[in-house]
């Protein structure tokens, strides 16, 4: 094809990167100099070369609009001062190599969304499942056709939904350098997690393509699930560049939100952008007050406050109730508060009850990386054990952890694999472990089926009862005229919360109206001490009694009854009670 067959004009500076239309292409670049643009077809045949010196738009932006008979697939690359330069806005690559000499690939195709509609789930009904694209299905036991790829996640959507989750947070899916070099030691290591510099408009080549992400989002929406992207922007990136990237993923990927990790992003600007108007924006905090146009109901805050206090409480620390009681009631008005016990940057749930100390020797930093304060308890032995007493306590603590991770006023986040006790052998900073240490071992789903079944059960319980996840914060008052507050704290004695250093027992009562306007009540008794404790529960209305629904210390779920001294709870155990109607005696039936 000859150059004169193309019509070349100055293009539009925004959006950055490649924009295609019917017979035209707009390419806007910020290459740090005057770029030379090389374009070829998919077979490698040169189509044209453009010196962009004549197409400066404004500032450091060069943009060119080229009209002609564009093929379905074509490639381009940039040169600046005789050296190949990366295009930070590229959306495709002709190979998996990270070299800047690699051509960027553009494939002209319109994805058929078939009337795709996002679920728009409110925060109080949201259950977030966080995963790593490769680690989720790369293990041989995953039994998916596309291991370690976006399509592999799509194959597992039904599993995630069946667990009870309705939202998925994906760790970085954009293209990143798969290896990094330590400046001090010159050691080269895997960049498994993907944080750091990247091509923020391009899918990581190892994970698949933009179309794969589109199919994932489309299928998730059909199942009533949302998809969020975790993004960590570098400090040097401008606010407008960040906005442009987020717009790209919303317009092209239909994603439902973003977790702006360790964000230096201009959150207020993002919240006021009309293109992002219905998209969740979640980060570690919002420094400025919300305005009406920002729609507070789309914002969510991630923080470690609940993680720290809940772990101390789970461990049985003295007087650990106070901090946990405060954190479990946190709720940001109409916005979301994302609460969790585990995340990728720390112990998995299994390791939380199996290790006191980090074991990051494989990371090559002499076990100095990762937090040294894990707030964990190994239940008596560091690491794997065959001792029955240790295994029994770990089983109980895992169940306790699941209840703590769900029963609070925030939005629960679950780290993938915690539902079947996935372990990283005590590594709490597996950022460079692209191996079986970080890949989920799906064989555990069978061997630890008891934990999966328990997790599924407590998720279903929380979802089924609005009193566990109300749209507004608890009033801690008798708002329904039932004779009980909507939520109340108790100690081992009802209506009285003990004080002192030994305080690690607490009860939580939830009340509301059932479909007939009568009292509905649940009571969760927490005994995080290392000894058995007697709990007396609040008296109920005539004709009602407390019945045990879940007991984390009772594997067989034998019927527990109230004794003269109240309810006896095992050490390190949680019991969930439900108020039930007593069956009437024959005499009461006759009198009625």
UniProtKB/TrEMBL annotation:
Pfam families: Alpha-amylase. SMART domains: Aamy. One of its GO terms (biological process) is carbohydrate metabolic process. InterPro entries: GH (IPR017853), GH13_cat_dom (IPR006047), Glyco_hydro_b (IPR013780). It comes from the Bacteria. Residues 130-462 form the Glycosyl hydrolase family 13 catalytic domain. This is Glycosyl hydrolase family 13 catalytic domain-containing protein. It comes from Candidatus Onthocola gallistercoris.
């Amino acid at each position: 094809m000859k150059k004169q067959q193309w019509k070349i004009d100055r293009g539009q500076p925004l959006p950055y990167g490649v924009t295609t239309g019917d017979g035209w292409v707009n390419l806007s670049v910020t290459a740090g100099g005057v770029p030379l643009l090389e374009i070829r077809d998919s077979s490698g045949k040169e189509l044209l070369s453009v010196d962009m010196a004549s197409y400066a738009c404004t500032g450091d932006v060069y943009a060119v609009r080229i009209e002609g008979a564009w093929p379905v697939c074509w490639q381009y690359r940039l040169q600046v001062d005789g050296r190949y330069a990366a295009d930070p806005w590229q959306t495709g690559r002709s190979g998996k190599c990270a070299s800047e000499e690699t051509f960027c690939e553009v494939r002209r195709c319109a994805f058929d969304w078939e009337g795709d509609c996002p679920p728009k789930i409110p925060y109080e009904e949201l259950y977030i499942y966080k995963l790593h694209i490769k680690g989720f299905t790369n293990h041989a036991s995953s039994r998916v056709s596309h291991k370690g790829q976006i399509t592999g996640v799509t194959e597992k959507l039904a599993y995630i939904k069946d667990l009870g989750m309705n939202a998925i947070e994906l760790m970085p899916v954009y293209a990143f350098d798969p290896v990094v070099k330590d400046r001090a030691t010159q050691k080269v290591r895997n960049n498994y997690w993907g944080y750091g510099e990247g091509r923020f408009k391009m899918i990581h080549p190892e994970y698949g393509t933009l179309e794969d992400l589109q199919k994932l989002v489309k299928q998730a929406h059909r199942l009533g699930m949302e998809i969020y992207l975790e993004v960590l922007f570098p400090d040097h990136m401008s606010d407008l560049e960040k906005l442009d990237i987020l717009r790209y993923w919303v317009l092209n990927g239909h994603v439902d939100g973003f977790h702006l990790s360790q964000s230096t992003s201009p959150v207020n600007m993002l919240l006021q952008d009309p293109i992002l108007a219905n998209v969740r924006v979640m980060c570690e905090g919002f420094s400025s007050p919300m305005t009406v146009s920002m729609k507070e109901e789309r914002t969510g805050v991630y923080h470690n406050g609940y993680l720290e206090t809940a772990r101390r409480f789970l461990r049985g620390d003295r007087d650990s109730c106070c901090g946990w009681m405060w954190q479990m009631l946190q709720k940001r008005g109409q916005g979301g508060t994302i609460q969790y016990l585990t995340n990728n940057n720390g112990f998995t749930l299994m390791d939380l009850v199996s290790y006191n100390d980090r074991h990051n020797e494989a990371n090559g930093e002499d076990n100095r990386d990762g937090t040294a304060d894990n707030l964990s308890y190994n239940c008596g032995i560091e690491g794997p054990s065959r001792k029955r007493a240790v295994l029994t306590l770990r089983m109980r603590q895992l169940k306790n952890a699941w209840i703590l991770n769900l029963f609070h006023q925030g939005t629960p986040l679950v780290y993938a694999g915690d539902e079947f006790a996935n372990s990283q052998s005590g590594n709490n900073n597996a950022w460079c472990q692209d191996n079986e240490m970080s890949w989920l071992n799906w064989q555990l789903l069978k061997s630890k089926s008891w934990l999966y079944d328990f997790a599924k059960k407590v998720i279903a319980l929380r979802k089924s009862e609005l009193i566990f996840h109300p749209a507004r914060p608890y009033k801690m008052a008798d708002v329904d005229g039932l004779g009980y507050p909507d939520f109340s704290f108790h100690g081992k004695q009802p209506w009285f919360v003990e004080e002192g250093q030994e305080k690690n027992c607490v009860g939580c009562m939830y009340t509301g109206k059932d479909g007939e306007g009568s009292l509905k009540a649940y009571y969760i008794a927490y005994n995080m001490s290392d000894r058995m404790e007697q709990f007396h529960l609040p008296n109920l209305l005539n004709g009602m009694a407390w019945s045990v629904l879940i007991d984390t210390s009772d594997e067989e779920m034998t019927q527990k009854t109230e004794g003269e001294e109240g309810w006896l709870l095992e050490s390190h155990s949680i019991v969930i009670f439900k108020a039930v109607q007593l069956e009437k005696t024959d005499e009461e039936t006759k009198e009625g």
